[in-house]
Amino acid sequence: MHELSIAYNLVEIVEEAARAAGAIRVTRVRLRLGDLAGVVEDALRFSFPVAAQGTPAEGAELAIEHVPVRVFCRQCNAERMLKPPFVYRCPECGASHLQLLQGRELQVESIEIEENHNETAYP
Ligand SMILES: [Zn+2]
Ligand 1 mean position to 93 CA, how many Å? Predict the structure, then answer.
């Protein structure tokens, strides 16, 4: 499963950040997930605890923040939001020459660790 390998990568990133912060355990992982990242959220939520087993991230809550899809339309010379099902066209003028500004994110924004409940930004 695609999401399982993503989950293993996430856990690796989290473990590294936890080690750098001197944390023994991670209680919460905040993740930014773009709507065009190609990740099925439910599958990722299912995979994360599996990948986290035996690591400091075991039992951590996975908090997912959705990143909407923003594009720049050269024809309108303006930023536009794309809505599902994300047809790659400007919602105003229909142009397909769009520059993707955000929406493909898959990044750990921060982790919370057990010791002092401080959030440690990553990186
Ligand atoms: Zn446009």
Answer: 4
Where in the sequence of the chain do the CATH 3.30.2320.50 domains occur?
A: 1-67+104-123
User: Mean pLDDT for each consecutive 10-residue tract of the chain (123 residues)?
Assistant: 92 94 93 95 96 96 96 97 92 95 96 71 59
CATH of domain 1-67+104-123: 3.30.2320.50
Centroid of ligand 1 to alpha carbon of 68 (angstroms): 18
Amino acid letter, residue 2:
H
Q: Take residue 24 and report the two structure tokens written for it.
A: 């023994």
Give, in order, the Cα–Cα distances in Å from 7 to each of 31, 81, 106: 11, 28, 11
Q: What is the pTM of this model?
A: 0.82
Residues with CB under 5 A from ligand 1 (ion): 73, 75-76, 90, 92-93, 95
* Helix and strand totals (H; E) in the chain: 2, 7
